[in-house]
Amino acid sequence: MTARILAQGIAKQFPGVQALDAVSLAVEPGEIHALLGENGAGKSTLGKIIAGVYSADAGQVFIDGAAVGAIDEVEAGRLGIGIVHQEGSLVGQLSIAENVFAGRQPTGRFGRIDRRAMRERTRALLADLGVTLDPDLKVAQLPPAQAQVVEIAKALSRDLRALILDEPTAALTLNETERLFEVCRTLAARGVAIIYVSHRLAEIFALCHGVTVLKDGRVTGVRRVAETSQDELIRLMVGREVHFARTTGARSFGEIRLEARGIAAAPFVRDASFAVRAGEIVCLAGLVGAGRSETCEAIFGARRLAAGEVLVRGRRVRFGGPWDAMAAGLGMAPEDRKDAGLFLSMDVAANVCATVLDKVSSSGRISSTKADALAGRFIRELRIATPSARHLVGHLSGGNQQKVLLAKWLAMEPDVLIVDEPTRGVDVGARSEIYRILRDLASRGLALLVVSSDLPEVLTLADRIVVMADGCTVGELDGATADEEQVLRLATRHTRVDALPVAA
Length: 504
Ligand SMILES: Nc1ncnc2c1ncn2[C@@H]1O[C@H](COP(=O)(O)OP(=O)(O)OP(=O)(O)O)[C@@H](O)[C@H]1O
Ligand SMILES: [Mg+2]
Prior knowledge:
The protein is an alpha/beta fold. Helices cover 32% and strands 25% of the residues.
């Protein structure tokens, strides 16, 4: 059988890094093939080369045995190669339908754009993905999970032969993920070859047939999924063993550092109450759209509090904005590292030091020696893969950007740290380090509020789990004893899955 997708001897260099070196990959028609590797291993780069976004320095891509020359994304689309990018490629100010059919709108008689057809086809594609959304909504209004679904619909709007999904579930949870799997299986059954990039090993075993592992731009292994194990894949990716231990045993906590009492905030939060004590890790669990991120933003002063109150160290606070919250000892690493979290066009040191300029200044001037030293500490501790502290954050791989975001808030040494999806897009090795660091911070007295859509992560990290559904806190569980089923039962008790945003 001829491979549907064959990449042979691919090499690609970026300034200072050999992103890919003699990489080969083969995917049969109807095969779902996982591409695994640590942050910066070269997965996205390989996907982009196959989809015509980048051109390779050496090597050749074949589709159904035919050599594909230098192509761009439009040409790739014509060849039936679709890609869903890790960082998203939608234009916020355009509608869902306009994004899905960008550049190739259906036309009616006299070449006029047929908006009705566009809307109807978009609606049908979204329905295929199990989502009801108004095709006229602007993408900027969508929460990340729904934007991701639109991204996928865009790839599906072509007649596909090959599809590359680069961490498609990073912003999805549970039912959305399950639905995406169904879509993948349907496409595969029609003969589409799928390259599936994910850091979640459980997904690989649930969905994929074959797997290729990259490390530092080279292939370290090709396996049938049925014939390998998590441990083997981790060894191939990381080159060592990694273990995740759950929080266990009796731990003692200090005073209540942060408390939310009946808070409400537009559009999703209706009634959230919980407390976080010094030394404690509280995880906010729930489905996408349950209002977890909005709750955090309301606490941090980034979203208007419509009702209820926030207490810090027992005193009621009213934050005019995040700066007030930071002055009160709160830090918050947001979910969206691209828009809200990082200065992509600045270097690692500038980002790490952004919240602590006083710490890296002497006599009123920023000292680059101090800034580099502070950044260097976090580059080592979090193992941020960057050529130096002077490297632009925008040029780092997604997972490494996430680590810089965490470093930026850790540098502030807050009393209460809110972290929204701390390991989204972060590889296994770095993830275990981030867990260790968060636990270590808690054991030194930090109060941590963590939002996570990754259930194993919640169970690994949490001292206490607060479950939200439909904008309300609906229950609490002991982190040491809870299981996935208990969390899910609370989270799905009464949910509004496709809830549309309402005006703020
Ligand atoms: N446009 C670019 N300019 C400069 N360097 C780049 C660019 N894109 C990627 N790189 C570098 O190439 C290497 C591979 O990056 P790539 O994004 O392919 O990794 P990845 O495996 O997708 O990682 P992640 O799991 O974090 O998404 C990294 O060292 C990265 O910093
Ligand atoms: Mg990537």
